[in-house]
Design goal:
Chain lengths: ~250, ~250
């Protein structure tokens, strides 16, 4: 058996998320099916993160153990051929030691959340960004974001379905950057709670719209109470950007 | 009658191009139909440029004369509501003097042609870029592009269906810029021949692939012979960027 690590780009629009499900197409299933078509083997993929329905991946990392003797390049080419026309592409494929694990060896994860801040309807970006018509004060959003950076109990920003043992996480960075009508929120941490990025972004948007003050964000965090969540942003704008390994 | 000028963004994938046609949806028709729905008037739009099937617009300029008394803002909002779900958005709407003409007053047009230079299949960008798998030498492409800048007979780079009176045009700028796997070719001129940008890009790609030398580009231009065209790039990567008015 050889442990192959994959870097995967995917457009989340047609998928029920990363993880294999009984009902509906997922990215994991698409790749596992392609591996089966290429090798005849039934392989279970392990990924650095799980993404919800409609969430995208720029460089998701995953691994699978394959018996068939193939170079990483040939495997990647064959998988990409079988993945068409699904919007999933293997960008890189490498052989890793057997004790390397895409999920458990991962020491950092980063996401970007993209907002298009304009009144005019979306054309190219439907399903790829969150459109917010009301002007966002991104300076206030960035200021409020800094209250979330560090080690906190993120219960307020956690989905009811979150399976993490603890709600205490360390957020390494949360930066709000505007480039004309495009607003990007960059988040980085060792790991995130389920819905944490979307929940933080939703509340940041309330700050940007002046419906919350910067202090309201601090109060919501300190409350450690899910009923204090102001808004959960839609999946459309969320991208898994990168996984770090030391 | 009031002359309204529109700035239009559109995803060209579902359209047969800008200009109204008997068969198939066009951007012009979508907007004219929306104007009819809002005002009850049959208005003919005039645009700064005509784009082919599958070509996109970031800020096409167009005008139409409308009798109904509306503010530009209300007209824009109503048109955008009626344009849904077509991927066409009116970004700006202003009132212009009666002697202002989106096409005839236009003194400069710019396009960008986007190439994704990688082996992995496209995900987010299907239909929005030209994918070139073979590595492109963008320095050589930029060098070859400079041979095309200036006043020349562009017969080699002209469609057989081109209706322009003369093939002599002045190309103001043609810049090839790489950002990682993304290659952008920026073209600016007072006006272009039909297929000129796609034809120049196709030949630049041949230079980038080392199938043409830089000197081959100069020879093809000097020949002023359409049979010397090396390659016409697909519409997918072409965007009308802006129209200038003095």
């Amino acid at each position: 058996m050889t442990r192959f690590a994959f870097t995967v780009e995917f457009d989340g629009r047609p998928f029920m998320g990363w993880q294999r499900q009984a009902h509906g197409p997922t990215v994991q299933q698409a790749i596992e099916d392609a591996i089966h078509a290429v090798t005849g083997e039934t392989v279970t993929l392990h990924a650095a993160g799980r993404t919800d329905a409609g969430v995208h991946g720029l460089a998701m990392r995953a691994h699978g153990d394959i018996a068939k003797d193939m170079t990483p390049f040939r495997l990647m080419e064959a998988l990409n051929a079988h993945l068409r026309p699904a919007p999933v592409a293997i960008l890189h494929c490498t052989v890793m030691p057997d004790d390397w694990h895409a999920r458990f060896s991962c020491t950092g994860r980063s996401y970007v959340y993209r907002i298009t801040n304009r009144r005019a309807p979306l054309t190219f970006e439907k399903g790829l960004v969150w459109q917010v018509s009301q002007h966002l004060d991104t300076d206030a959003m960035h200021e409020a974001a800094q209250l979330l950076v560090g080690k906190h109990d993120f219960t307020t920003f956690r989905s009811a379905h979150c399976q993490s043992a603890s709600a205490v996480k360390t957020l390494s960075a949360l930066d709000v950057v505007r480039d004309s009508e495009q607003v990007a929120i960059h988040a980085r941490a060792r790991s995130f709670l389920h819905h944490q990025v979307r929940s933080m972004v939703g509340c940041l948007a309330l700050v940007g719209m002046k419906r919350w003050s910067v202090a309201d964000m601090g109060d919501a965090l300190e409350a450690a109470d899910r009923s204090r969540l102001g808004l959960n942003a839609p999946p459309d704008g969320l991208y898994f950007v990168a996984a770090e390994y030391r």
